[in-house]
Design goal:
By secondary structure, this protein is mainly β. It is built from 2 helices and 15 strands. Among the domains are: 52-137, Trypsin-like serine proteases (Thrombin, subunit H, Beta Barrel); 152-235, Beta Barrel (Thrombin, subunit H), CATH 2.40.10.10. Strand 10 and strand 11 (173-186) form a beta hairpin.
Amino acid sequence: MRCKSCGGECTAVSPTLYRCRYCGDEVTVDAASVQAPVPEAPAPAEASGVSVYNKNINGILELTWQEAFIIHFGSGYLIDDKGTAVTNTHVVVDGKKKAVKNLVATVNGEKVRASVEVLGDDNGGLGKGVDLALVRLERVPKGVTPLEFEDFENVKIGEKVYIIGNSEGEGTCITEGIVSDRLRPVNGKQLLMTDCAVNPGNSGGPVFNEKGKVIGTVVSYRPDAKGMNYVIPSDTVQKFLKKYMK
């Protein structure tokens, strides 16, 4: 309400009495004419872990393979509707650094045999190549959802991110954190760093921004330093795919 004398803003003294904050004049109003302010419409809900998870869970792979009595595990994600998926080289090589032959992927609740088509590093993820691999599902279960990449130029330090993967080989789960560093030198490579919880089994899994788009692929973590986890940036992943996808 505005003061009739000076035009200044009036504040309520009682339900029917208002006083000007500037000149002090008071005005009495009919209680029936005083209307409660109309509340502003709530802002649209921001993207959350729930929406990111629901949007992408049917494109996440739990990868396993067995060597003697040892079960190895990791993560991956679909990038097209033909059953092509991305993971790390070190997830799908044996002790001789050769592609495994008995790979199984669980996606959308179904177990599917898979084959390793391309290894981006001929030294099991420890060489000069990129620690990525292409995997092909033997068949594509119904209801799967290929994931969408974000342009890495849009990634900002401090933005919220999510990781979904087969943590500890005990099944898919989601963790939350931020981009700690956009490009950090690690063993001669430029990697994104996050503080999301990452464990064995998360390797090869996707990292999402709040829009639910992939900004990179989990590759390693430092067990001696809490909250220092490393990710192959999405532009590096896309260059790898452009080079090797048929």
